[in-house]
Amino acid sequence: MRFPGFLALSLAAQGATSHACKTDEDCSLNGICSRQWPWSDYPNGIILKPRKVCKCDPGWFGDDCGRLDLRPAGRINGYNHSADGVESSHFGPYGNSSWGGQIFQDPKNPKLFHLFASQFADGCGLSGWRPHSFVLRAESRNGPQGPYQFAQSVSKPFRHNPQVIWSPADEKYLLYTIGVDDNVKREECTSLSYTQWPNNISVSAADDLQGPWTPFEMVLSSKEPHSTNPAPWPLWTPEYHTSKIVLGVEDLAIFIADKYNGEYELVHTQMWNTSEWSPTWTEDSFFWQDKRGHWHALAHWMIDLVEHDGQKWPRVGAHVFAKDLTGPWHFHLHEAFNSTVTYTDGSSQTLDRRERAKIFFSDDGEMTPLYLINGVQEMGERSRSSTVIQPIGEKWKKYEKRLGFR
Questions:
Q1: Which residues belong to any copy of the EGF-like domain (predicted)?
Q2: What are the angstrom distances between the C-alpha of 14 and each of 9, 32, 249, 330, 374?
Q3: CATH of the domain at 392
């Protein structure tokens, strides 16, 4: 899938020659800036100096390797708004609405996949996300793309934007969310403002993806700057055994703690303008460390809200990157993905909203992106939403074939 009409502007390399690079940062740290000889000129007897161009890692493309190479998705995928296998109290006028999600392969059964996502209690939809949102776990035995079926409620409302990581140091799964427990049943599916309801960041732990999960412990109060929308990543590596946890939050700020339920210290805030209605306005980050030890994040980019009077599409995905966790970080101002999804039947659909991006990576140590997971909302919808999973590049085919799905 290729994106038309992107904004060809970069905070990292403005004015760079098309297809040329000087450093790996010019390749978004998703590839290598390497020498290439202009072999096509040799038959004419002309010997030119080699130039340097970006050689992109699998799953990424573009002059700066800054775009996810999205491929057609099946029409039935992800976690959709159907009543199948769902507790009846969660099915109402907005269907089984969900928002975002994260995939895990079961460590004991490689053909079983788990999806952790936000769902909305009492039959409410996305417009009533705060305080009706809670965390669910769904299962797929059809492969990582799904479709997924409801398996269990992992939390009560209000818990939103779940992100799960495996901590090798603790030998536990860690579930980070925003929210607080709410025992009040509300009649209307409307959403409260953040001033009425806190976005505290909390963490829960479990030995198994199916639980049981420990009671949530608050690690960052909503009174702290940037304290919403957690994006954790363990600092443990085979060479560096540590319990330290990186926690990205709103505005792509970064905290670190010595242990998952310890004290989190702010170590970096971005140098660009993170305020609302700026060209670099983002939310809902997802952080990871690649095979070279470099750092990346995807975020919801609000550029069309800024430039087109509140429109939420089509440019929705931002990619930022840094060689070191504390920077400097770089933001190439073009979309990493947009809100159009192509399907295997040859059709396509441009969505009104495509947010909460998360990536499922290969398990071979290469950190190749295999699937992009998003919360989506179709044009004309105001509350019904679902979770879409779209394959990336070519490596996912071998992954699914190895598991016996294709």
A1: 54-65
A2: 6, 19, 27, 12, 30
A3: 2.115.10.20
